[in-house]
Structures are given as C-alpha cells and as structure tokens.
Specification:
GMP Synthetase, Chain A, domain 3; 2 domains; three-stranded mixed β-sheet; elongated
Amino acid sequence: MFTRLLLTMFTLTVGLLMMTGPVQADKYTAIYLAIDAALENTQRNVRDKDGTTLTPDDQKSNKKDINITTKIRKVLIKDKSLSVNAHNIKIITSNRIVTLRGIVENADESMTVEKVAKKTHGVIRIDNQLEIKSPIKT
C-alpha cells in the first residue's frame, strides 16, 4: 500500500514537472524575442502620449461620428483579404473627418482602407496616417 502511494506521488510529480518545464522555457523565450522585435512600438506609444496626435479618446460621441466609425470598422472586418493589422487600425471620427492610424502590411492595404472610409456615407474628409509595416530584419 505504502509503495503504491509513493509510486503514485512520484508519477504525479514527474508528470507535473514535465508539463511545466516547457511552459517556463516558452515564457522566457517570448520575453527575449519581444525585446529584440523589429516591430516593437514603444516609440509610437510615446509619440501618441504627447497630445499632438489623435487617439481613440478623441473620437466624438455624437451619433453621426459613431455611426461612421462603426460602418468603416464593419466593412474592414468583413474583408478577409486584409491583414490582422489592417483589421485593428484606429479609426477616429471627429466632426465627420476620419483619421486612420496604425500599421498595415503594405501600400495596397493602406489604399484599400482609405477607399472604404471614403465610400462611407457622411464622411467629409480622410486623414490617412497609416504606416507600412517595417520588414523584419534578419
């Protein structure tokens, strides 16, 4: 009986160690990769905090501006040819003027997003501040 209990405890301990070992390695690997990432955006975040660029907090809460932003977002999300980055851009509408901010994969995506915004009913002007994703450095 005692031997069986020890064997069970040993098996559970080894199994637990085997399961958590790779997780720890992956966690630390991700940290090191993030430090050296070519697409690290700390500089963009600092730039956005200085108050000179529009952020989603600048989105007006009037019904027309909210509807414009919602319509653009819905069309972009439905377009499966766009990248995840393009789906996640910032769309800021203020007095029916749409500002597009964020990173897209290439110039074609930038143009596609801008065209969607231009076609949206009620938009007066587009301020396209989209940035092209930097190529990964090897």
